[in-house]
Amino acid sequence: QVKMNGKNNFMVFNPSMNEIIQRKASLQQDLKQALKNKQLEIYYQPKFDLASNRYDGFEALVRWNHDERGFIPPLEFIRIAEESNLIIELGDWILEESCRFISNYNLSHQSSYSIAVNISTFQLLNDDFEEKVTNVLEETGLDPCLLELEITETMLMNSMSIAYEKLKFLREKNISIALDDFGTGYSSLTYLKSLPITTVKLDKSFIDDIATDKLSLKIVENVIQIAKNIGLKIVVEGVETIDQLEILKDLPCNKIQGYYFSKPVSKLNLTEVLSEYP
Ligand code: C2E
Ligand code: MG
Ligand code: MG
Ligand code: MG
């Protein structure tokens, strides 16, 4: 079978592409159902704070264990949700669920852990996003300074001034804003100066070989220096080895996140994870 793609090119439409399209359509249906039936779960990955030598917060990461297909990677179903309007409903649920959880956890453990929530660009650009965030904080009683929103530059370039206004409003409420996956895009440095962010999260790919490759280390050192010089906090993600950790301890970064400390865990295993660095 041959399918025209609108220009003067054609692509071969083979069975495996057909499978991909069908998987997508069926996952989209199932995701809607899973959201309604509360079959999604939030996992929490601790962030290690170098200054205090302890965990001081978590990133919320959504998990979907499909009835028949098993674990579906979040990047896959988030993309599917973004292709329909489902990302709004899904994002609302993730934000509320994780804020409520951490607020209750802090109350019952007399702690003040922060929570970082990934926000899709579609959510951020939706008209009532700021209002929803303010409502969730009010309803869950979470202190705004314990909430961090993680955004990525994906699809932001055409809506910079809208994004700017929205983020500025949220900053004025004392909510933190992190630029996620920093170092994977093309014009990252521009975003650092043109958005009212508080934090930069260095992508795993940036630091993978800092322990073995001098050039990689030099680049990371300099990027961290730039971020620090303009007053941003730095979180390094994807740290897996003690060698990476030892190197990063000597650089002026603030927090470390990665399998070296802990994988994302279910809320049921959180207290156990926390007992290691109380
Ligand atoms: P992200 O926000 O950059 O999250 C970090 C990802 O790296 C997570 O993958 C985490 O499990 C993984 N990770 C953390 N430390 C390590 C490490 O040391 N080694 C390795 N190999 N991986 C590590 P996950 O949970 O599969 O999520 C992937 C992406 O999916 C996230 O990247 C984020 O873009 C998106 N995502 C996940 N949960 C949500 C959500 O609730 N909402 C939205 N909008 N997106 C989400
Ligand atoms: Mg993130
Ligand atoms: Mg990231
Ligand atoms: Mg990532």
From TrEMBL:
Residues 24-278 form the EAL domain. The keyword Kinase does not apply. It comes from Acetobacterium malicum. It is found in: Cell membrane. Keywords: Cell membrane, Coiled coil, Membrane, Transmembrane, Transmembrane helix. This is EAL domain-containing protein. The chain holds residues 527 to 804 of 804 of the full protein. Its main location: membrane. Residues 1-37 form a coiled coil.
